[in-house]
Specification:
Blueprint: H1 2-10, H2 12-23, H3 35-47, E1 52-57, E2 71-78, E3 81-91, E4 110-111, E5 114-116, H4 120-140, E6 145-153, H5 164-169, E7 180-183, E8 191-196, E9 198-207, H6 222-242, E10 259-267, E11 287-296, H7 302-319, E12 324-333, E13 336-337, H8 343-356, E14 361-365, H9 371-376, E15 383-385, E16 400-402, H10 403-422
Parallel strand pairs: 3-6, 3-7, 7-15, 8-14
Antiparallel strand pairs: 1-2, 2-6, 4-5, 5-16, 8-13, 9-11, 9-12, 10-11
Helix pairs in contact: 1-4, 1-10, 2-4, 4-10, 6-7, 8-10
Length: 423
């Protein structure tokens, strides 16, 4: 085992270089740029080492188009004998850059032991770490049993439907094919993430009647109706959710309660193109749409979650004449949590203790990630998120990942491979 850890140390520069190469490909989602480029980089690297590499386009999946094809890459190396398959799954897409950067968001700059760039933490650093860990393990244990897989998949930042969901539907995460999955999301190197809360996205539309803006009494303002909905949320729904608490080890502490985010609100005249220089027309808005992002706990039932919103809307309807509304489901995901005694949990827990000298903390993510598809579609329960990076840095300006953290996580991953494929 000492030789394995020493060789990880020897690959420090290689880990830095690979992370920088990945960051410098601006795989922005939306709309889904340069997905093929990053998959091709991984294909060339792993293929040159004898791995079987498959490029898979999620043809027809949500978001896929000829202009922005949803490309995924899956690399597999078979061992010398029969055994389990350990799969490292990372998403290659990154969110919009946003304002406030003091460094090149796609420069991959190394400074003071940190690599900066959009996606450095979430989660190209984790992807690079898993690749280096696997390469070192294979070099030290060429006669291992079973198989190793590494995938880089699309669209996790927008639901994963062009990535892991598409692959799971086609059997890539079938328990007969893959037995252990590690998703290197940035949950901190001394944490093992067992799962995530549930989510229900929906649109609430209030309906009105159009009229001339100078005579609003002849119409019915849908925006005013939505204002009453938001007021009712503040008065009854938000306090109700804040009072619910879970036994799941969700982090941070505020996410141990149920939450609801108002994601967007649109009412009245549509926003015109940027080159339009005229004034808006004088109309009473006849519709207003609000998008909600409801995160719920493993103790809650999805029917109860939806019923609470319907009851809130009915309370508003009872107080407002001519109040009409519609609720449209967008998507929903059930909470998931891998048992603490699952093989992959115990294996990584022991490896963390061996590398860091302390036990890993078990946590649950406040938001969903691609484990939802591996669990729900693939029916593979032996899955965790474990990877380097500080979760709070995800989606922030000047996002970075620590090289030392990646090195420690690479050691944990390599030791876990040794435990699962050589013992």
């Amino acid at each position: 085992m000492d030789r394995l850890l020493t060789e990880i140390e020897n690959r420090r520069d290689a880990l830095i270089a690979l992370t920088q190469d990945l960051i410098r490909i601006p795989t922005l989602n939306p709309p889904g740029r340069h997905y093929c480029d990053i998959c091709a980089l991984i294909q060339e690297r792993m293929g040159s080492q004898g791995w079987q590499v498959e490029m898979v386009r999620a043809q027809g999946a949500l978001g896929d188009s000829d202009k922005y094809p949803r490309w995924n890459v899956i690399c597999r190396l078979e061992g010398r004998g029969p055994g389990d398959c350990v799969h490292f799954n990372s998403h290659h897409d990154v969110v919009a850059v946003g304002d406030g950067w003091t460094r090149d968001p796609f420069g991959g700059e190394l400074a003071d032991g940190k690599i900066y760039g959009r996606g450095a933490c979430d989660m190209k650093g984790g992807l690079a770490t898993s690749i280096i860990a696997a390469e070192v393990f294979v070099a030290m244990h060429p006669d291992f049993n079973g198989a190793i897989e590494i995938s880089a998949t699309a669209d996790e930042e927008s639901g994963g439907f062009g990535g892991v969901a598409y692959l799971a539907e086609r059997g890539y995460f079938d328990p007969a094919r893959v037995q252990h999955v590690i998703i290197p999301e940035p949950l901190n190197k001394d944490r093992i993430c067992l799962g995530h809360r549930g989510v229900w996205w929906a649109e609430i539309e209030t309906k009105g009647r159009i009229a001339h803006g100078s005579m609003p009494f002849l119409g019915d303002c849908a925006v005013r109706h939505m204002g009453a909905v938001i007021a009712e949320m503040e008065a009854t729904l938000f306090p109700l959710l804040a009072g619910k608490r879970t036994e799941m080890p969700v982090v941070p502490d505020g996410a141990k309660s149920s939450t609801l985010n108002i994601n967007a609100i649109h009412g009245g005249e549509p926003v015109q193109d940027a080159d339009y220089t005229g004034l808006p027309s004088a109309c009473v808005p006849d519709r207003c749409t609000l998008t909600i992002d409801r995160r719920f706990l493993i103790e809650e039932d999805i029917d109860e979650v939806k019923r609470e919103v319907r009851q809130m809307m009915e309370r508003v309807r009872e107080r407002r004449p001519d109040f009409r509304y519609e609720i449209r489901d967008l998507f929903e995901v059930q909470p998931t949590m891998t048992p603490e005694d699952a093989p992959i949990v115990q294996t990584v827990q022991n490896a963390v203790h061996q590398v860091l000298g302390r036990s890993a903390e078990f946590v649950v993510s406040p938001g969903t990630y691609d484990q939802k598809h591996i669990d729900r579609i693939g029916r593979l329960k032996n899955c965790i998120a474990y990877g380097p990076g500080i979760l709070d840095l995800a989606h922030q300006p000047d996002e970075w990942i620590g090289v030392d953290d990646m090195m420690d996580s690479a050691k944990v991953m390599a030791i876990s491979l040794a435990k699962l494929l050589t013992d």
